[in-house]
Specification:
The complex is a heterodimer. Chain A is of the alpha+beta class. Among the domains of chain A are: 40-126, no CATH class; 175-283, Immunoglobulin-like (Sandwich), CATH 2.60.40. Chain A is built from nine helices and eight strands. In chain A, the strands form two sheets. In chain A, strands 1, 2, 5, 7 and 8 form a five-stranded mixed beta sheet that branches. In chain A, a hairpin with a 2-residue loop joins β3 (211-216) and β4 (219-224). In chain A, α2 runs antiparallel to α3 (65-73) and α4 (81-93) packs antiparallel against α5 (101-116). The longest helix of chain A has 22 residues, at 9-30. The model of chain A is unreliable at 133-174 (pLDDT under 50). By secondary structure, chain B is an all-alpha fold. Chain B has two domains: 2-32, no CATH class; 36-119, no CATH class. In chain B, 66% of the residues lie in helices and 0% in strands. Chain B is built from six helices and no strands. Chain B has helices at 2-25, 41-58, 61-68, 76-90, 95-107, 116-119. The chains are: A alpha+beta, B mainly alpha. Chains A and B meet through α1, α2, α5, α8 and β4 of A and α1, α2, α3 and α5 of B.
Amino acid sequence: MRAPAVISKGLFALGLVVGIALGLAITRLAGPLQRDNAEPWQLRHEHRDYYGVAVALEHAHRGDLTVALAKLISLRPATDPVTALAESACRLGGSGYLASTSGIQALRTVTQFTREQGRAGCAEELLPPITTPKPATNEEGKAYAEAQGTLVPTKPPLAEAIQSTRFVAPTQSAQRRFEAISLRSFCAVDRPAIIEVSVVDYLGRGLPGQPIRARWGAQEDTFISGLKGERGLAYADFQMDPDTDYSLDMPAAAEPVATSLRTGICYEGNRESLKSYRVVFAER
Amino acid sequence: MRRFLLSLTLGLLLGIVAGAVIGWLNPPAAARNSRLGDLAQPHRDDYAIMIAAGYAHDGDLAGALERLRHLEVGDLAGTLRATTERIINSGSRELGDIRVLARLAADLGGATPIMAPFLVGEGG
């Protein structure tokens, strides 16, 4: 005669299924993968692509292939890391990344890196052609061509590289010209004595990273567009002191605005504040 | 009744352990959906250093800003300044990393006295 089983298989299976579901739910809610604790391999596609671009940019500066490959491997790509980077460049090339000069320059760096490692992707076909510079006829001409970034020099020492980029780098601001197309004063209790500047391209799109200079007396200060992300790419501002006349321009890119800017008492409704200004520099 | 409870409890306990182990070892799809701003601090530092090195290479301040923006911090200049100072104080990175970070922070208007030694000899 068989003794009755101590455990019911059906109930045990039911408990097991419910338990697995509970266990999975616990790891989803309180697992090891939380915000601000993510690893590069956990990045979403788009951000993996940005990370890959950063790796290529760093490699262009340092020339350390081992470090670059280690960082690409940290993304745990499905294929070999360089092919994955070429695929990233391809995706970025087709996603509007090439709408800016910076994007084009960065993707060129990426494709150069992948090409050097014997991999190619569609990004190379998506990139606009490089304009060929006029051959330099003398040392000055050669130096100028190098300054424009049209030749690819061997990697300079760090200090030299930084120095060169500070003064002759082919930045957008060095190539672009702007003019102040709008200057208006306004009165706001929450924004007293402030100069709000917007820097836009010829299509009206905000341009980050553009230096704007305020000068008063023998002093000056430069501030940069796009640093206050919540106010948009075009935005920069400067706090004025009372009883001071300010001149505003963009170094080597835009003439000073026609009138000097000076704050003074103003009223928003019946509340007293200090006059502020809104200036728009547009690419021409 | 005892048999009923024993079977269910045993199954439940084993299931929870198995589910937790499976969940721990196989991250959910969402875990591969992080943003650069979600990275752990050492990786965020890595990213900032890579961008700064890129800036040292191409001098494209607008591009560097655009890339730093992916970290989704409100005050980019302030955050970069704080990151640079923290790294200098902790001595956790190589000199080359600190120099490129300090240069980018300075060019974004965030140079502080502690960065000065790392900006010396670079043309001002």
